[in-house]
Amino acid sequence: MGMEACMRALVLSVALLVVFAGSARAEIRVIDPLTGAWSTVVADRGSDLVRWTDDGTGLLIRGDGGAIARVGLDGTRTAQPQIDGAVTVSVGPGGRTITVGTEEGRDGEYALRAPDGRIVSVQRGPAFSFTPWVSWSADGARVAAVVPDRTVVLDTATGAVLVSQDRKLWMSEQAFAADGSALVGNDGGRVLRIEISSGRTTVIGRARETQATPQTALSSTGRIAVTPLGAVKVLNGPTVGLTGDPGRPALWSPDGQLLSVGFLTADADGCNPYELNGLAAGTPGRPLRVLLTPAERELGTALWSPDGTRLAVEVGREWPPAKRGPRHRWPTRIRPTFGLPTAKANTAARRIVLRASRSLRRDATREAVMNRVRRDYTALEKRHHTAQRAAVRRAVAAELDRWLEAAGFEPTEGFIEMTC
Predict the structure, then answer these.
(1) Residue 335 domain-assigned?
(2) First and final CA of the chain: distance in angstroms?
(3) 35, 83, 124, 361: which has the highest count of C-beta atoms within 10 A?
(4) How far apart (Å, rounded) are the C-alpha atoms in residues 232 and 84?
(5) Is 329 among the domain residues?
């Protein structure tokens, strides 16, 4: 195999890895956003949600090997025609697709295909930019694709390039205006509107980057939601008081009235504000209904059905609670001192272990106990700075381990597990 062929094989392998990375260990649920009722449509935890079918009666999913299938809401599965030598990155209205793979040619190239698989246009980005970000207009007549430092809009019937800009536009699935006349995205903290007919670009808002690049979503009524790592904002509208996740941007219902928000929150220990993933939906400016309670699991971006009555979302497996082993005799006492300089400080440290011991005797989970220990020990360190000393932390951890092991749990990982 020549060098060019080897590189092409490497490109395709990495493309597969990138495209399928979000599908690990997830089931797919369909949720009623008004009541919160849900059902599991795909339970094999090896499938990736691609989109709703155009008629809203099923979902398109990608399996472990990359094959696209249609799944009805009753769980029945129908394989879709496959394109040899190509990986489907995105499926648009009417069955149009964006693909990468050996038929597209050299690395960095991607193809726009007609519903019958025929190549309509091949576009080239920088080397090794295998998986473009893609957004389709509502009628499927236009598609936007973004690779590093290049954003293009294509006519899906002819393949004509309608817009080409040397910029990396961060955009969500809802980048197009309802009539397909404009595109909205984020570039360097600026929310941009690009007119398709002229390419004229206007700054219509700001979206400050905090650890992650904010994402934007344009509703059918023209409202724009911005999802930073923080409160979700509607430009010239209310702020949604949930911690948004740019990796799962807030998206509008088809009528532009409701907003689905994948949000982040802290666990009971309060250490990491982005520990748990939840999903909510509702009208901006009003309290949102929580559809999936925050938990330590991965969630995908919730996609609205064409009629706006349901949401489909990938739901990862929740982290299982710690298993209990054989139980042992409970300790009879808790040491009175832990190397802190005052009796008050030592009493406060002893109280942490005492509270944990009582919870363990009441069959609390290890997670619940350690969440409370971390919260209490953080408060202790704020009141008594000497509690930050390694010797003090080790002493408290050693005492706590006696109770954990008696309850049948693994001991702490030194003092590291006790603190934020």
Answers:
(1) no
(2) 52
(3) 83
(4) 41
(5) no
pLDDT tens digits along 261-284: 999 998 888 888 888 999 999 999
pLDDT digits 0-9 by tens, 101-128: 755 445 668 899 999 999 999 998 766 5
Shared domain check, 136 and 40: yes
Closest to 79 (Cα-Cα) out of 92, 66, 96, 91? 66
pLDDT at 130: 55
State whether 261 and 224 are in the same domain. yes
Of 300, 316, 332, the residue that ends a domain is 316
Q: Give per-residue pLDDT as tens, 122-137.
A: 998 766 555 788 999 9
Same structural domain, 160 and 262: yes
Structural contact between residues 291 and 271, judged by C-beta atoms closer than 8 angstroms: no
Angle (CA) 291-292-298 rounded to 5° is: 140
Does an H or E element contain 370, and which? helix 366-383
Model confidence at 298: pLDDT above 80 = yes
> Looking at the structure, do residues 350 and 223 belong to the same domain, yes or no?
no
Query: What six digits make up the tokens of 344?
Result: 């008050």
Nearest to 348 by CA among 390, 378, 368, 370: 378
| Rounded Cα–Cα distance for residues 265 and 195 (Å) | 37
Helices (H) and strands (E) in the chain, counts: 4, 27
How many domains does one find in the chain? 2
Burial 358-393, CB ≥16 within 10 A → b, else e:
ebbeeebebbebbbbbbbbbbebbeebeebeeeebb
How many whole angstroms from its chain centre is CA 399?
39
Residue 18 lies in a domain: yes
Residue range of the domain that includes 260: 3-316
Residue 129 is predicted with a pLDDT of 53
Where helices occur in 159-291 by DSSP H, the ranges are none
Q: Is residue 400 part of a domain?
A: yes
